[in-house]
Amino acid sequence: MSSVPRGFLLSVAVFTLIYAFVSFLFSLLISFGLFVIFCSLFVVFISYARIPAPSQKVVEEILGLDYYEVKSEDASNLDKECPSSSGFVMPIVAHRGACLDAPENSLTAFRLVKLRGVHGVELDVSLTKDKVPIVFHDEVVDRVTNGAGRVVDLTYEEIKELDLSTKFIFPQEFSLERIPKLSEAIDLCLDLDLRIMIDVKEPDSQLADAVLAEYKRRPELKKRAMVSSFFPNIIYLVRLGDPDIVCSMAVRPNFFAYKDFIPGFGPSHPRFDAWWKHWGACFLDQLLEISQYSFTPYFLGLSAILSSHVGVDIVKLSHWRSQGLRVFIWTLNDPVAKKYCHEVLRTPYLTDTLDL
Predict the structure, then answer these.
(1) Which of 5, 64, 192, 340 could covalently link to 89 via disulfide, CB atoms 3.0 to 4.6 Å apart?
(2) Domain match, 268 and 287 both
(3) Quick one: CA dihedral 174, 177, 180, 184, positive or negative?
């Protein structure tokens, strides 16, 4: 039996190597081509699906001149101007109607804000069991009322019987304070010529619908109010429903994975018991942390960022401002922190008290 010639074996080996190399290059080109096609389709989708931000002129009608760009010596004078004028600034926003000065998110609180000469209020939106939008912050009513239970388990008829004044730090200063409907709060704030930050507390699309219904009922909100939420889907739904609505995104480190963030200690009280939900929320937090400086503002058409005071610094502020975003910091109640925020960071803030 004759042996196979060595040259033949060498030729087969060389051919095999060349074939493998060419196949590798071909598969690489196909993979690269598919990657390019995918990226192109993604860019086309983003360009089509994104919602451009409203004009800066409209943003200024709501938020006033950019406090960061106003000279320090001019800011105090402009702050005293009527918000209906063309040259006001809004360095302070009353968080939940300045909830240390009056029962939080109450109509009385909003009236007192106006009396104190502050132009802006922040209020929170929740839905009752029978889907009535109310101005309320917590998931349960226990902390600030004489009632008990979850908001989503109570009808509006039950909610309106509760008293916000009973657990206020100075209950003797206030009589019966009801939890207002969203429509009642908006009507009052518009009558008082206050600027409104409407904070949507949950990722429920029905809340987005409720907010859109108010804008349809009171079209002047487009020049008097800004919608804010931690949840990008809410912002997108609101702006998809009406692209003229000015929106901001609230941010806080580890928001989706943890209920609280304690300065000096870090995140606490995980939102989820299941490990896979927790790690999924952690991944979402990291994704939003990265995207909030570029992609998210571009895609949602944001006009502002409402940043927690935890972890905020000049670098982050610079990133946001480079995107043309206004920045507000929440929630500052310490006089030194307020002074630092205004004089060093040149940034407006939300506060629970107007006394300090």
Answers:
(1) 64
(2) yes
(3) negative
Its domain, for residue 36, covers 1-49
Question: Both 120 and 38 in a single domain?
Answer: no
Reduced to 3 states (helix: H, G, I; strand: E, B; else coil), residue 92 is strand
On the CB side of 320, CA atoms within 13 Å amount to: 25
Distance CA 320, CA 312 (A): 11
For the chain (356 residues), the mean pLDDT of every run of 10, in chain order, is: 55 64 70 67 78 96 93 60 71 98 98 97 98 97 97 98 94 91 98 98 96 98 98 97 98 92 83 92 91 92 96 92 96 96 96 92
Count of CB atoms within 10 A of residue 298's CB?
15
Beta carbons within 10 angstroms of residue 120's beta carbon: 25
**What one-character DSSP code corresponds to residue 52?**
P
Residue 203: closest CA among 177, 171, 237:
237
- Predicted model pTM: 0.88
Q: What values do phi and psi take at 206, rounded to 5?
A: -65, -30
- Among 9, 30, 49, identify where a domain stops: 49
Could you give the 3-state DSSP secondary structure of residue 212? helix
Cα–Cα dist 226/64, whole Å = 12
Any domain includes 143: yes
